[in-house]
Amino acid sequence: MELKPSYLQLTPKMGELVWQYYPSDDLLAVQLGYIKLLQDLFSDQLIEWRQGFTRISVVWKEETGHHQFQKLLSILDPEPVKLPEQTWEIPVCYDESLGSDLVNFCDEKELSSDQLISFHTEPTYRIHFFGFLPGFFYLNGLPEILHSPRKAIPSLSVPTGSVAIGGAQTGIYPCQSPGGWHCIGRTPITLFDPKSSSPVWAKPGDQIKFKPISLKEFENWSDANCFFIKG
Amino acid sequence: MSEQKGLALILRTGPGSSIQDQGRILGSQFGIPSSGVMDQKSFFWVNHILQNSPNEAVLEISSPGFSIQFDSPALVSIAGAKAFVTLNSQEEANPSLIAIQKGDILEIGRFFHGSRVYLGIKDGFQSPIFLESRSFFTSITGQSMIRKGDKLDFQAFNSYSISPVKAKPRWNSAWFEGKELKAFKGPDWHLLSSDQQEKIRKTEFHISKLSNRMGIQLEELVENLLPELPTNPVFPGTIQLTSGGKLLILMRDSGVTGGYPRILQLSEESVSLLSQKNPGQAIRFLVKDF
Questions:
Q1: Cβ distance of A199 and B265 shorter than 8 Å
Q2: What sign for the dihedral angle of Cα B125, B130, B136, B141?
Q3: ipTM of predicted complex
Q4: Which of A172, B38, B102, B223 is 20 to 30 A from B25 via CA?
Q5: What is the domain count for chain B?
């Protein structure tokens, strides 16, 4: 598959790499290759870059950054990055006392809560990037049967650790926030620590899998960390 | 010149005021908003007047009824919104540079025009640094705004007890009185119909009450028939067209990615100008081709 992006200059100092494809592992591997290229060859000319599902935005220190980058792109395709095989396991308690929308969501989908749990825990999800909130993963891989439009009226306060579904996506709220996704459970682990020099333990390209735990296990969970399991 | 720690006590504050610097650029890869001062132009000016390095932390004061007492001598500078400023109940007609003595009380009363006052101090306020920035943001610094009774650290310099102020510069706020915002076409501008584009170019929009450090909503609607798009990067100054047809201008505390069409991107100067607008005020977009 040809996954060469085009480059769109937006403002004197901002531009973005544009891919006209749906998010996928292949596209992510190519995107991470371009990010590595930016970091390796252009770090002294960059203010910052930001990653999305189908774009990478770049802010240059000087206007000349656009031209030098475009010139290089015309002669060079970076190697796609090999995506990690390993997977983080994230414990989730799917109890209606913790997932405030669990019952409604199951009713809407005509699923039992056991069916919902098995659909949600079965896939291995890929972390594409962080956005929305500090430490919030954008994951790819939610089964189509669980896709559900966001709430018409967002909740004013979604608790820290809430595991939720919105549109074609699932994610975890790393901190308390207003939010429009349907909360189906909660994880006891910490997703974001601002006091650490690496505030998140996972990185784009890593995989995660949800593991169901009981309410008792949730309440007694002592380790805020998460560990790699074999992929 | 002896250097000692000074403390400034917040005696009174309205909602929404905070310590800010240029923000935390390094955090975006973890999904952390950049934060930082809303109006960079006023921020750079106060640091320049104080002969600070450009990124020293300042107080961003977004509502009247603010009062602060200093326990040591200091040098402060005020810019941004034009407001009624008093030192120990005496009006300061030109607050661009004020020598503070031990025990002085500085107050900011009503705002004449503009929306945010910037109070800078020699060498900056010394609140804790997270990810290379002092800017308040709840999930990073544990606090989103200053409260009555807070004590802010600063470097006191006794040499300022001798009045150092000769020719005082005067802050000119005329630059934020205009209503034209310079905007570049965003990545999704081309998805709009020519009627929608025309409407966005011609309409005089008004700032909604639903405006804060995360984003500024506009009152007038623009019909949105666009499909939901994949989530992609956004920045302060990105203008999104929401599913309900509202224009939402993302500001300093907004998330780093968004799913709504990104139709325009404001110039940095226009982000500062917009930061000084109040709900109800009019703006227009001057859409630039790049």
A1: no
A2: negative
A3: 0.91
A4: A172
A5: 2
